[in-house]
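Help needed: design a sequence for this.
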């Protein structure tokens, strides 16, 4: 994307969770390769979509970028600063500029805390306001997410799912972040409420100049809200492109299978479309296949796909793909 500044950059980012055996003397016997070499750029002011099957590593990638999980290897560069080498107070200062909106609005809010205390938690953690200013700031944030500021003394159980997610958005905005990871923020909500939350996120982005990483399963919603879309499979990014290019001309066989599952609201077009059904199960991230991770399910795999990892290459126009056949 010419003319845009890179805000977040990952280089060969990996997050492996160790598998241990033994009670007293624990010995590592393997690892879950949740994120296995992710390299991408997120530009200031854009919304990057991250899609893929459940368990492919989307949420882990988002949390590792924010340093909620410390990476096994690789680098995360935020606005020119390598987060992976920071510790203590310098890392805390950088975390103020990055926040997360969680998937489940019922589990992400402490039921024992009032809304005022939940939203003001980042203000206290980063010492951004005095105690007297916190109430005014919380009320301002509630207005920003279109909730009544008089709700500050209520508890989470008094709100609906959509209202709780708005509270989660308000909490994420409290520290004036520049980058927000939206971890499937609408998947647990009713369809009628999903559009309201998405419209709210878009309005906040325009008003505050935010940069989003939007993790989701709903490919139609991803096309609506995102500027570019990255497709993830078994810990790796297999394709990345501007949204219209990716949806209209998917190159990777896995992306083509995903796109064939997106319903089209035109019965004539829908009847002519060919549904791609992938055979077999997703391999275990504990022992992924050698070569291309998708080779065991790929309908066009050839011999080298089973032994040689495909290169990550630009096919033009900012369209990247990792496939021997593409």
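Sure. Designed sequence:
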């Amino acid at each position: 994307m010419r003319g845009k500044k890179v805000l977040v950059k990952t280089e060969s980012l990996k997050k492996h969770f160790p598998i241990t055996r033994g009670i007293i003397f624990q010995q590592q016997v393997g690892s879950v390769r949740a994120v296995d070499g992710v390299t991408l750029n997120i530009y200031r002011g854009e919304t990057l979509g991250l899609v893929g099957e459940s368990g492919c590593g989307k949420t882990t990638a988002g949390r590792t970028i924010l340093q909620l999980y410390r990476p096994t290897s690789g680098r995360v560069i935020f606005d020119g600063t390598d987060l992976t080498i920071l510790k203590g107070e310098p890392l805390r200062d950088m975390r103020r500029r990055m926040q997360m909106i969680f998937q489940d609005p019922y589990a992400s809010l402490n039921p024992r805390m009032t809304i005022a205390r939940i939203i003001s938690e980042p203000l206290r953690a980063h010492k951004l306001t005095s105690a007297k200013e916190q109430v005014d700031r919380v009320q301002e944030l509630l207005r920003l997410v279109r909730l009544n500021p008089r709700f500050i003394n209520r508890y989470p159980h008094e709100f609906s799912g959509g209202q709780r997610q708005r509270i989660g958005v308000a909490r994420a905005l409290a520290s004036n972040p520049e980058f927000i990871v939206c971890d499937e923020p609408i998947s647990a909500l009713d369809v009628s409420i999903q559009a309201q939350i998405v419209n709210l996120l878009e309005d906040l982005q325009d008003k505050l100049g935010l940069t989003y990483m939007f993790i989701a399963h709903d490919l139609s919603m991803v096309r609506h809200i995102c500027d570019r879309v990255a497709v993830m499979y078994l810990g790796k990014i297999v394709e990345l492109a501007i949204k219209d290019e990716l949806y209209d001309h998917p190159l990777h066989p896995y992306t083509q299978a995903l796109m064939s599952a997106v319903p089209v609201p035109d019965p004539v077009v829908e009847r002519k479309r060919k549904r791609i059904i992938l055979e077999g199960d997703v391999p275990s991230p504990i022992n992924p296949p050698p070569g291309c991770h998708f080779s065991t399910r790929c309908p066009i795999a050839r011999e080298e796909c089973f032994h040689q990892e495909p290169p990550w290459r630009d096919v033009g126009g900012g369209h990247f793909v990792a496939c021997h056949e593409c």
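DSSP finds ten helices and twelve strands in the chain.
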